[in-house]
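Dock pyridoxal-5'-phosphate; give full complex structure.
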Amino acid sequence: MARRIIYLDNAATTPVYKEVVREIDYYSTKEYGNPSSPHYLGENALKAINDSRKKLAAEIGAKAHEIIFVSGGTEANNMALMGIAPIKTGKNKIFVSAIEHSSIYESAQYLKVLGYDVREIPVDKEGLIDLEKLEEAIDDKTLFISVMHANNEIGVIQNLRAIGVLCKKKGVLFHTDAVQSFGKERINIGEIGVDLLSASAHKISGPKGVGFIYAREGIEIKPLIIGGGQEAGRRGGTENVPGIMGFAKALEITRKINREKVRKLKDYLILRLKKIGGKINGSIEKRMYNNVNISFRDVDAEQLVLYLSQKGVMCSTRSACLSKQQKENRVLKALGLNEEEIKGSLRLVLNEFITRRDIDYVVKEIEKFLKKQQSNF
Ligand code: PLP
């Protein structure tokens, strides 16, 4: 009999809801029109994606036409930086936080090569932006600031509202990568004062390969993909109709989740792991309801992940995009962790299907592994 999987890698991706699969099926086999086609199947498809656009926009307090559908969080983040930077403003300084996802970090590196003055905003040992340092660093050459909402590795949630106030005061554009928090944490773009925001469907049990970028009305943003004039000329290519419909359906379902129940289980997991020597990385209070990132001494967490995988437990040490690359862990390094703490760090991200029994099993297996490995050190 197949072993039940305990899936604790929900920052990497999430299982797609059955209702979402049905929606994708319907818009792939029944209402399969191209939204740009003139006949009624095309009109139906256009109407359907615009309904989804409205629902997704409403979640963050935006207007429907401020939502541009793209292929996911990576494209949204690339577009935020590379679509804004070339706009002629006479400003060329760009700030990104030290703990951004690689899709922001690499875009910033690319802009640096093109001659932009790219600066990193440091975080404290809790993983939070130092607002005073940021305020001091912003000058009249600053075009753009990108600070993520919830971090994908340590789950830390930034005070976006304070950053938004600062950006407004200084006349700087503000982008946030909300890929990990969209549909899970409350976001209101008006309250935050954000100009651009990225979201992705597969982090809320929607399909992979679809997301959006919110661009505040009046913001000029250059398309990265041209041809066809879709998305009001801001993103070429036939829209991913089934994906967009699945995204809106996933949002509808995910909003009903009992997050308090998950939060309590996360707290229970932290408590149990601390008792066996774990040290939590990132702020405990300003953190996603489902994220545990913990370091163990004298442990190679990569091996722990493989051991747990054999035991039916899926988790990771870091962002899925980087786990196959030998690159250093920028995020934990930015928090000031030493090599040993980074090597021994494990990320466990819960969902609503996890039970207390699952947690007890996982802790027992981690404990077994720790005993074995620590005795070999
Ligand atoms: N930003 C963050 C914070 C993420 O966690 C991810 C995915 O891991 C992305 C961006 C990229 O999103 P996608 O996988 O939809 O390209």
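Observed: The CA atoms of residues 77 and 104 lie 6 Å apart.
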